[in-house]
Design a protein that fits this description.
Order of helices and strands: HEHEHEEHEHEHEHEH
CATH topology: TIM Barrel
Largest sheet: 8 strands, parallel
Radius of gyration: 17 Å
Number of helices: 8
Strand content: 15-25%
Number of strands: 8
Helix content: 25-40%
Number of domains: 1
CATH class: Alpha Beta
CATH architecture: Alpha-Beta Barrel
Shape: globular
Structural class: alpha/beta
Length: about 220
């Protein structure tokens, strides 16, 4: 099937999550051409997520019809290239990035929407705040004049133990629900990629980041 057909099929079959909420699909567009991305948008995808700042810059003016999100690891010295052009930063994973994004946003006279990244699998290879610090971190970030917390993001570790993975999603959902009680603007729990999105939405995620299932394998993989 074409990318457009893949998008239509995915959106058609996408169920509500375990809480009866609509699930938002973010197309992960790493190494994808403008033509491929536009085809996914034409198939109904309403949000696209970049991993690399250079790619974001190169493609920004050529893509229409979808919100622009940044979903990859973000270096502080590259924040300046995204300010005012990004609808949601999904990977706010450490304090120096909080400081830089807040500073740049205030300087530009805008408020940047963010998700607080949690290292739910306690993996050294991944960024993010520890789960037990997630609520306090989100509270502190929300106090910043240039930032607005809309939820949380996490990546599941690689494991064949689905019960374990499901328990991690439920822990994230608990954090999300707790924070949302006092922050009604919170609306996204971003968990799930091409290989695990079904498990994630079955346990409470309401935003998924999909690449391969939309576009096929990347060249060279």
């Amino acid at each position: 099937m074409s990318i457009r057909d893949n998008a239509k099929e995915l959106l058609k079959e996408l169920p509500l999550n375990a809480y009866g909420e609509k699930v938002t699909v973010v197309a992960a567009v790493k190494f994808r051409t403008v033509e491929e991305i536009q085809e996914a948008i034409d198939g109904g995808i309403e949000a696209i997520g970049d991993n690399h700042v250079q790619e974001f810059k190169e493609k920004h003016d050529s893509i229409v019809g979808a919100s622009r999100q940044f979903i990859g690891h973000l270096q502080t010295n590259k924040v300046k290239y995204l300010i005012g052009k990004t609808d949601l930063y999904q990977s706010l994973d450490r304090w120096d990035l909080v400081e830089e994004l807040d500073k740049r946003s205030k300087r530009a006279g805008i408020v940047s929407n963010v998700l607080v990244q949690i290292n739910i699998g306690c993996e050294e290879s991944k960024g993010g705040f520890p789960l037990e610090e997630g609520e306090a971190a989100a509270e502190e970030i929300e106090k910043r004049e240039g930032l607005h917390v809309l939820g949380f993001m996490a990546m599941l570790p690689i494991s064949d133990d689905e019960a374990y993975l499901a328990s991690l999603v439920r822990k994230m959902r608990s954090l999300y629900d707790t924070f949302r009680k006092s922050h009604p603007d919170v609306k996204y729990l971003s968990m799930g990629m091409s290989g695990d999105w079904k498990l994630c939405i079955e346990n409470g995620s309401n935003m998924i980041r999909i690449g391969t299932a939309l576009f096929g394998k990347r060249p060279g993989y």
